[in-house]
Specification:
Chain lengths: 115, 112
């Protein structure tokens, strides 16, 4: 069974640019969450999507957005990149879609460097 | 609010024991534990639910004190494979869906 796949794995952008990251969840998983991981702030929740709808949102500015497609694949977009956006962006999928959080299956992440 | 983990780091010899603590200022529904090895994705270890239910894969035990909103992860007879950064993730009572607030992590190094 294939795991969570994130692309691209590494990318370098300059300030002011925008970036789109992609996540393919495990087959059958309909919930996709995104987390930002930095040495200083640790793992921070960005948002969660289920059935193409954003179900939860973290405390990030509006420059961070996402969407989910009918096949459960998800993308996140960061516009007007800032140096502080440099981080590992992790996607996690879950089979559990009702009530509270179930086991999360994380991808290996997309490492974004903003110059 | 982010849960607080302690210690921040611990070094063990193979076979030794260690305890990692996770404390929250909010009333919790559940506490989740993940381990991340360098350069790899976080991997699920255990869920501890309000009411006492536990779900996990590995032979690593944990506890959840609902009154104190604290959880502890017990690394018993540690193995080299236990090395990595351990994160606790908390879920508040009013949460719905898959959303965790993670602590800052505890780095564990197990030496031969």
């Amino acid at each position: 069974k294939a795991g969570v796949t994130q692309t691209p794995r590494y990318l370098i952008k300059t300030r002011g640019q925008q970036v789109t990251l992609s996540c393919s969840p495990i087959s059958g998983h309909r919930s996709v969450s995104w987390y930002q991981q930095t040495p200083g702030q640790g793992l921070q929740f960005l948002f969660e999507y289920f059935s193409e709808t954003q179900r939860n949102k973290g405390n990030f500015p509006g420059r961070f957005s996402g969407r989910q497609f009918s096949n459960s694949r998800s993308e996140m977009n960061v516009s007007t990149l800032e140096l502080g956006d440099s981080a590992l962006y992790l996607c996690a999928s879950s089979l559990k879609v009702t009530a509270n959080t179930g086991e999360l299956f994380f991808g290996e992440g997309s490492r974004l460097t903003v110059l | 609010q982010q849960p607080v983990q302690s210690p921040q780091a611990v070094i063990l010899r193979e076979g030794e024991d260690a305890v990692i603590n996770c404390s929250s200022s909010k009333a919790l529904y559940s506490v989740h534990w993940y381990r991340q090895k360098h350069g790899e994705a976080p991997v699920f270890l255990m869920i501890l639910l309000k009411g006492g239910e536990q779900k996990g894969h590995e032979k690593i035990s944990a506890s959840f004190n609902e009154k104190k909103q604290q959880s502890s992860l017990y690394l018993t007879a540690s193995q080299l494979s236990y090395s990595g950064t351990y994160f606790c993730g908390t879920e508040s009572l009013e949460a719905a869906g898959n959303k965790l607030t993670f602590g800052g992590g505890t780095r564990v190094l197990v030496k031969p």
